[in-house]
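Quick question, first post here. What does this chain look like in 3D?
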Amino acid sequence: MADAVTTQIIQDGPRNAVIKFTNISDGTGESAVDKVIVGNLSKLANGQPCTEVVLERVQFYLHGMAVTLNFSVSSGTAAFIAKLKEDDLGDMDLRDYSGIPNNAGVNKTGNISFTTTSASAGNTYTVILTLTKA
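> Answer (accepted):
Ran it through. Tokens below.
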């Protein structure tokens, strides 16, 4: 069995994207699962493909598990963004200073991954990311 996960594209325009992620766990959890896959986002206004994103805002509700967000890499260690602690809710608004750019180095994929910890059957998360495309 596996966690029941969903991805909902709320907005995917030439500059910005807003994506909602949910998970109802069976206790399996997720480990370094790419959630934002930049190659699947629509093209930029100039017609070029999206190759990375800047994280502008994270809205979240977690019940019973924690979620770690990372910028993914093709090899090596992913670049840590934030850890959302279990049984918490919040709104990390990063727009006042232009968000968090991808600092994953030369092996960066441009994607954002989630890893859950302390997942038990029936635990859930809802995470909404607001992104600016680069």
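Strands lie at 4-12, 16-26, 33-36, 53-63, 66-73, 79-84, 89-93, 108-117, 121-133.
The radius of gyration is 14 Å.
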